[in-house]
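As a representative case, the lines below give one protein's residues and fold tokens.
***
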Amino acid sequence: MVERYIQMGYIKSPSIKEAMKNVPRELFMPKNLLQYAYFDEPYPIPGDGRQTISAPYTYPLFYEPLELRRGDKLLEVGMGSGYGAALAHEVVGEKGLVVTVEINEVNIQVRSKEPPRSRIQENYHNKRRWIQRIPAIITVR
């Protein structure tokens, strides 16, 4: 998939290439759709049916123009599955900061009940306990 996206011109930077290789998309997919994790399609995520995990090629389209680097800070509006924030966090690294904001209470409830399957989800669960009054803001360090 990554090599195909490079050939198609979606991935241009080494940091996005490495992030897409290092963050397993299947960790953010509903269990019944795991076999489709690397298809070029959006898929519904658990919740109220209004949100999807975007098609994988869209993430380089979003992040390449930002020219994200180690240590950068990023505000993501709409957490969705968490995959985009995980990719961004992989790029900005431990000294960077990714904050994702989610308004859909159903998505927040679903995400908070999932067992952590990645570093971003583990951070989400740890930080959520500290942000009781504003559960829709998740900071990943």
Notes: The chain has one domain: 2-140. Strands lie at 43-44, 52-53, 73-77, 97-101, 137-140. The radius of gyration is 14 Å.
